[in-house]
Amino acid sequence: MLARGPALWKAGTALSRTVPTSLENGSDMTDTPTPERMRSVLLELARSRGPERTICPSEAARALDADDWRTLMEPVRAQACRLADERLVEITQKGAVVDGRTARGPIRVRIR
Q1: One Pfam family of this protein, by short name (predicted)?
Q2: In a domain, 47, yes or no
Q3: Domain containing residue 54
Q4: Partners of 91 in the beta sheet?
Q5: What whole-number distance in Å separates Cα of residue 82 and Cα of residue 58?
Q6: Is residue 78 part of a domain?
Q7: Count of domains in the chain?
Q8: Is residue 26 domain-resident?
């Protein structure tokens, strides 16, 4: 269970601070997340952050599988690109909107 409240903010746990309650209890989680589940988590996290702020794809990967999140980074990033293609999110790098497929290095995702 993820901690909540002022103590969490002081601890600086960015992931825990951004995971909506519906994702905390692990509901609808499977051993291998489907592309639909990845999209759903990306959208839920981005919506919870709002259009003025961004999320890192690793936040979605960690929400999907806290132990093996690194193996999910490539497919989560691919789903973020598909969401951008559908104009549901924007992918940014250093504050500028970029094409997630050609961007090298860290990207961020923001709801449109």
Answers
A1: DUF3253
A2: yes
A3: 32-111
A4: 109
A5: 16
A6: yes
A7: 1
A8: no
Two tokens, residue 75: 């497919």
Q: For residue 8, is it within any domain?
A: no
CATH code of the domain covering residue 52: 1.10.10.10
Does pTM top 0.85 for this prediction? no
DSSP class of residue 5 equals S
What DSSP string describes 46-105? HHHH-TTS-B-HHHHHHHH-SSSGGGGHHHHHHHHHHHHHTTSEEEEETTEE--TTT--S
Q: Which residues contact 28 (CB under 8 A, 6 or more apart)?
A: 37
pLDDT tens digit string along 33-75?
999 999 999 999 999 999 999 999 999 999 999 999 999 999 9
CA-to-CA dists, residue 24 to 52, 84, 88, 89, 106, angstroms: 23, 25, 23, 23, 25
Tokens 């990033």: give the residue.
77
